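seq as requested:
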Amino acid sequence: MNESADATLDYQALRKSTSSVQLATINRDNLPEASYAPCVWYEGDCYLFLSGLSSHTDNLENNPSISLLLLEEGSPANAFARKRASLHGRARIIGRDEETFDRVMRVFHESFGKVMQIIEPLPDFRLFRVSLEAGSFVRGFGQAYALTGEKLESLVPVDPRK
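struct tokens:
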């Protein structure tokens, strides 16, 4: 297998193993705000089920721009070489009456178990779909890739000289 194919498999494995993401949203004062949320992936998009009591929910309702950080879990041998992906996109609320809502909530139930029986009915929770627009994947030292394609599924090596 070649380097590019190996990198693609590593990126796909990172996305598949990610059950939470670090979020960057923009608050009402136009300042960046970092936070965290559990997530699921469905048909190439990232979904977040967020409480209306959280500031990131208010932020996304007022400005749908979002950045997600996926980090390799565990303790890699070198923190500087930790696999990671930075994804940028736009968040949109999926209404409880939309067909996608039920499909994605099934994935949340499969991923997070009984806690979903408690929080899904809560009226302040909202389901957001993050449609990805740009991103990058760092596999390790000297192994950076731009993510391309409709769902950011393709990797293009980044030339460090540029």
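The chain has one domain: 3-157.
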